[in-house]
Design goal:
With 211 residues, this protein is of the alpha/beta class. The chain has nine helices and eight strands. The strands form two sheets. Strands 2-3-1-4-8 form a five-stranded parallel β-sheet, with helices on both faces. The structure holds BIS(adenosine)-5'-pentaphosphate (AP5).
Length: 211
């Protein structure tokens, strides 16, 4: 059983690394950001409620997020474990999670704030399979086309510079306290996220296995 949380600033590489680690260990990657964006696209009740918070770089209310995750973790594909990418995002979400799931390890991807703007403004995401690229650091073979599924690549609405700054502020005030929270529980693994993508994956794999 492997129940992991990926923590880090916006653009730290949570999505990139959790997608890779998910394949290595054959456990699902559960991204609250992806689930919310899917809901916004489909115009569901959740999507309608979440959109304004996301556009402003704020956290979507806990009441929406916690039920969403609880339901997702009850699915069959989570029976051997999962990677939570973007949840929990504050102490209340972490406490709520403990009422319905145990957590084995928390991977904190540590990057300096000054590399984030370039990472986020150069990010491209696949509309179909949600794979993440970067125009400079992880480019697709053909511009605007996903290598994995041929889907169209797009730029996220919240990757504009003004919104990125707000997301960083939200992280610092709400999410950062989780680092200490999980350190005290002795399940925190700190990963240097300011290296190339492959090196980071190898390091996470090794540390998750306990080497
Ligand atoms: P979410 O989608 O989770 O966004 P985020 O946390 O801001 O994280 P990102 O997806 O922007 O970054 P990442 O760390 O995954 O980086 P990535 O791998 O893509 O959340 C969006 C919004 O939804 C929130 O603002 C909030 O409103 C809401 N929300 C979500 N969860 C919530 C919750 N639990 N509670 C309340 N609200 C919630 O990498 C970024 C770029 O860098 C890519 O282009 C990538 O190719 C590149 N890159 C990655 N690693 C490297 C590297 N080592 N070197 C060079 N480039 C790299």
């Amino acid at each position: 059983m492997m129940r992991l949380i990926f923590l880090g600033l916006p653009g730290a590489g949570k999505g990139t690394q959790s997608e890779r680690i998910s394949k290595i260990f054959n456990i699902p990657q559960i991204s609250t950001g992806d689930i919310l964006r899917e809901n916004v696209k489909k115009g569901t009740e959740i999507g309608k409620k979440a959109k304004s918070y996301m556009d402003e770089g704020k956290l979507v209310p806990d009441s929406i997020i916690i039920d969403m995750i609880k339901e997702r973790l009850s699915a069959n594909d989570c029976s051997e474990g999962y990677i939570l990418d973007g949840f929990p995002r504050n102490i209340d979400q972490a406490k709520a999670l403990e009422t319905f799931s145990k957590i084995d390890k928390v991977i904190f991807i540590d990057v300096p704030t000054d590399v984030l703007i370039e990472r986020l403004t150069g990010r491209r995401t696949c509309r179909k399979c949600k794979a993440v690229y970067h125009i400079k650091y992880n480019p697709p073979k053909n511009p605007d086309v996903c290598d994995l599924c041929g889907g169209e690549l797009f730029q996220r609405d919240d990757d504009k510079v003004e919104v990125v700054q707000k997301r960083i502020d939200t992280y610092n005030s709400k999410t950062k306290p989780l680092i200490d929270y999980y350190k005290k529980k002795n399940i925190l693994i700190i990963i240097d996220g300011n290296r190339n993508i492959d090196e980071i994956t190898t390091d996470i794999e090794k540390k998750v296995k306990g080497n």
